[in-house]
Each structure stands twice: as C-alpha cells, then as structure tokens.
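Writing this down once: the sequence line spells out the residues, with the fold written below as integer tokens. This is how one looks:
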Amino acid sequence: MRIVNILPPAVHPHRPWAPPRTYQPVVLAQVKKKHLNRSRLDQLLGRGEVNELEKMSKTGPTGNKGNKGTKDKSSKKADQNGGVTVRVRLTRPNVTALALEHNVLQVLYTGCAENPDCPKEPGTSGFLYSGFGNSGNSFLTPHFIHLFVDISVLQDQTGYCYLGLYKCTRREPFSASKWKKLSDQEQLLFARRTRDNTPDFSKIDLEVIRAHYEAGWVLLPCLELQFVEYNVQLASALAEDQETDSESRKRKREVKAENKVPSQERLSVDVKISGELQSTDLDAQRRTSAGCDEALESKLETRKKIKLE
C-alpha cells in the first residue's frame, strides 16, 4: 500500500516550538496524597468552562465500533480513569471559597494510563501526548494550572491525586523514534485520537495512520508539564475533606446496619404474633365445631325419645 502524506502542515505564529526538556525531581518536605473523584472535586473547587483537549470517538482501543450511541466497556473505563485530558477554567459564581483561597483558577485532569510520561508523583515533571490534529491549537502560550492525575493503574486506589501547580507549555513534537518505543495498544490509541481530531484523517484506516507515524510524516504532539510548586494547604484541605467524607459514609453504613436489626426483630415478632393468632383461631374453630357436634347429638337424642313415646 502506498502511503501518501495527506496531513497538511500546521502553521502557528508560535512556531518553531522549543524541543522538549527534562527536569530533575523536586524533593518535597511534606506531601498529602489523597484520591478524589471528579464529581467531588467539582464540589470542592467549583465548576466552569470545560475544554476536552482531544475528542474521543465511541470506539475501543483497537478502533472497533460498538453499538450505536454507546461506548464499549473499555472506552467507559478509559473515560473514568482519566482517558480524556480535560482543562477546567473556574469561573464565578461557580468557583468555591476553597479555590479562591488558594488561587486555583485553572485545573487540568488527566491519566497516566494513556500518558505514560506524565508526572506520577508531586515534585516531578513530565509530558502529555496532547495536541492531536486540530487540538494542537491548545496551550500555544504557557499556562499555570493545578494538575490532578489519575494514577489508578499504579495503585489500588481510584480517583485523581493532586500533584501541584504546573507550567504547561507546547513543545516540538517527538520524533518517530519515540513512536517506535510505544506498545501496539498505545499506538492504536494515539492513532485513533489523531483520526478523531483531524478531518483529513477521519476516513483513514488506523494502520495507515500508524504507518504515517512510523515513517515520521506525523509526529507525537508534546505538552510539557514543568513542576512549579506544591500547595500543601490545598492538598491538606482536600485530604481532610476526603477523610471527613469517608467517615460520613462509614457512619451512614453503620446507621443503616443498626436500623436493619430492629426491622428483623419486628419481623420475627410479627411472625410470632401471627402464629399465635393463627393458633388461637384454630382453637376457636375446634371449640365451635365441638359445640355444634354436641348440640346436634342432643337434638338427635330428643327426637329418639319422642318417637319411642
């Protein structure tokens, strides 16, 4: 199959971008690592303008379409585990007092399952494979954003962990040698993201897109995440809320369990009373039946006497 480079070169006023850089980890004196889900973080920090940096099609990692209007299980799991990189600009009046207190104006949610080079510990820097196709227009200028990463693939806990304040900068894409180091599953995933976000690739087979990357005609986009600082007070507030929320859920379960015991006792009492009532009714029926039999025998004796006379 002859592969034709049909992807037009992207032209941005900020090019040429600087090459990706690596940074030494920063040793932190204190870290509060807790995991919270997106809905809880929205409640704690607030809501605002949500921007998904890449569109995700309703297909699995291999690009096989599922039922119309639905996502397959693998896609659902990817979305829940940070498969989509989402930037949220907190806006009034939806921003909370906690976010204002710690000057949290932008939040970035992502996952290390689809971004193996993203930061995984507070104090570390890394990269996101973000900017496929038309989404390459994001982060053309540096942004300072509080980063939350889902590292559930590395730990048993699920949810997003706060890693700190990061400087997010668009960098020159990685070379083809970086692409060749990725696994087949990762290559298929990024090929699918490229197709989803590039109109010229919308009808191109995933294997053809992979071949484009292999040949170096299409390059892996790079968003550099440089660690700036770790807000211990914010991390502590989030950790305390999680502990309080966990205690509240635990107490609710205990109360629910306690309420079940009286219900069972009432049920057993009702059954016992019902049994006693049933027994009483049977006794009454027996006595009534015995009384009727005695009256009938008395009438028969009376008739016999009359006939004999």
